[in-house]
């Protein structure tokens, strides 16, 4: 059976696809991870049926320090222009916003961490990826936020302080400030880098990580449907996409 091929951009080893990668594969997609930080060459978007951009510790405007950010933003614009289903996670969400004309800033309220409420808005109910949201909580671990939406973007979820959580940036492009891919093991690696800052704030990292572990079943039920809906869009894209001679691409990237 032909499977849609999803390109996943991983910025750092400690920010892997995690549960999202598993959910995509269980929904019938093939996942290929691009790791530019180890020297992987820039992929050709035309070879893929969908694009996922993960999180990382760098900022969305750190183009000078991370060579792949400018071409990645170009890739995101190409995806938006050509209808390639695209999903940004945390930093990825911020990169998509910047690539499409929005803005990002350091959160004036400070770093947001833990299993936090998701403020779904009425517009989410009819969305193709987040329609009929199943959960009211998600993992947040972020310092920056999208401060300005690009023209035409639709806000799907926000915090009580009006911080952007989930956006449909364009017809085939979405962004999530939360971390549906993460679990307690992934977050524990992030917590190591924030230990001193959390001590200064009086945050108990052990309790924080434990709360994420305790919420695993809830988080899985809440966010797995997102991956399933996104895979369906990738499958539809694959079905529409034809090679130059009109034959459909097979699951291994060849023509059949």
Concise synopsis of the structure shown:
With 256 residues, this protein is an alpha/beta fold. The chain is 33% helix and 21% strand. The chain has seven helices and eleven strands.
Structural description of this entry:
The structure is a single chain. The strands form three sheets. Strands 2-1-3-4-11-10-9 form a seven-stranded mixed β-sheet, with helices on both faces. A two-stranded antiparallel sheet has the order 5-8. A hairpin with a 2-residue loop joins strand 10 and strand 11. Helix 2 packs across helix 3 and helix 4 packs antiparallel against helix 6. 33% of the residues lie in helices and 21% in strands. The protein is of the alpha/beta class. The C terminus is likely disordered. It is globular. The N and C termini lie close together (12 Å). It has a single domain, classed as 3-Layer(aba) Sandwich (Rossmann fold), CATH 3.40.50.
Keywords:
about 260 residues, alpha/beta, Rossmann fold, 7-stranded mixed β-sheet, two-stranded antiparallel ribbon, disordered C terminus
How would you summarize the topology of this molecule?
Elements: E1 5-9, H1 18-26, E2 30-34, E3 50-53, H2 69-82, E4 86-89, H3 91-99, E5 103-106, E6 112-117, E7 137-142, E8 144-148, E9 154-158, E10 164-170, E11 173-176, H4 184-193, H5 195-201, H6 205-214, H7 216-240
Parallel strand pairs: 1-2, 1-3, 3-4, 4-11
Antiparallel strand pairs: 5-8, 6-7, 9-10, 10-11
Helix pairs in contact: 1-7, 2-3, 4-6
């Amino acid at each position: 059976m032909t499977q849609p091929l999803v390109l996943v951009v991983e910025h750092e080893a400690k920010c892997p696809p995690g549960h999202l990668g598993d959910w995509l594969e269980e929904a019938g997609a093939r996942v290929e991870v691009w790791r530019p930080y180890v020297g992987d060459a820039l992929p050709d978007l035309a070879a893929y049926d969908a694009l996922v951009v993960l999180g990382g510790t760098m900022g969305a405007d750190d183009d000078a320090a991370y060579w792949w950010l400018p071409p990645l933003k170009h890739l995101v614009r190409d995806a938006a222009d050509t209808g390639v289903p695209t999903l940004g996670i945390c930093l990825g969400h911020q990169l998509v916003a910047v690539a499409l004309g929005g803005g990002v800033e350091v959160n004036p309220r400070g770093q947001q961490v833990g299993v936090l409420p998701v403020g779904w808005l009425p517009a989410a109910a009819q969305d193709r990826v987040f329609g009929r949201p199943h959960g009211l909580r998600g993992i947040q671990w972020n310092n920056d936020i999208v401060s300005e939406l690009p023209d035409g973007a639709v806000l799907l979820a926000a915090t009580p302080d009006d911080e952007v959580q989930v956006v449909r940036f364009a017809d085939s492009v979405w962004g999530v400030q939360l971390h549906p891919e993460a679990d307690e093991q992934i977050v524990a690696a992030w917590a190591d880098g924030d230990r001193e800052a959390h001590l200064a704030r009086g945050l108990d990292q052990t309790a924080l990580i434990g709360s994420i572990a305790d919420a695993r079943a809830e988080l899985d039920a809440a966010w797995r449907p997102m991956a399933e809906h996104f895979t369906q869009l990738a499958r539809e894209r694959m079905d529409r996409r034809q090679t130059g001679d009109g034959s459909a691409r097979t699951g291994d990237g060849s023509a059949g």
